[in-house]
Description:
Layout (H helix, E strand, L loop, with lengths): L1 H15 L9 H8 L3 H8 L2 H25 L11 H18 L1 H8 L41 H16 L8 H20 L19 H17 L13
Amino acid sequence: MPAARESLLDAAYTALTKRAWTAIRMVDVAAAAGVSRQTLYNEFGSKDGLARALVRRETENYLAGVARALSRGASAAGTRGDAAGRVVAAAAWTLRTARANPLVRAALTGCWGGRLPTPSPAPAAMAPAGPARLGVPVRRTAAVEGPLPGPAELVGRFCDQAVAALEPDWPAEELPALGTACETAARLTLACVVAPVAPGAGRAAGRIPAQRARRELETEAVARLVRGAFARVPAGAPPAEPE
């Protein structure tokens, strides 16, 4: 039941914004979602299964946002448009999401902390061996959803999505340089998540006004780094002239 599943995940995330994961009770999550505790256990199997599903949903939502950011400002056929700007938008989305969503930040950095769930690895033996018996619901065990993404996988998927979004406008001989630029941009973005810009950075040289918010400083910093990564990508052939 997809609606119940999403309601349960929403309830679990809301509870996590108010108290530590260890203090969250399954019965309270079920009540907040308006379903029975048995429905919750049927859907996720255990509290650890709920945690895994919640982390997976939040990271998949984050990656969907990366794809949306990369698609904005896509160039017309035969032109490049602002490729670096599209990756900057994906990097800015990453910073915003990491600031707002503790689960995404933890998945990106590998630092979970005491308030967050730390889902255990999925044992392969837990995968269901065959169809459920008539009338007995199948529990969605951790192994069914596979291992959770960590920093390396998320950086890799950011890079892969960037290359896939930009390569239609790139000559084949320049694709290796594009891949290098996208990988560099992805790693620099993660570095900005792990080590945010310090308050006041850059003000001594008069480059950044003191009244700007820290989030603006971080966005500007990652934009400079990403554009720097693309500065060495060959300009390539000009767009074809219309016939």
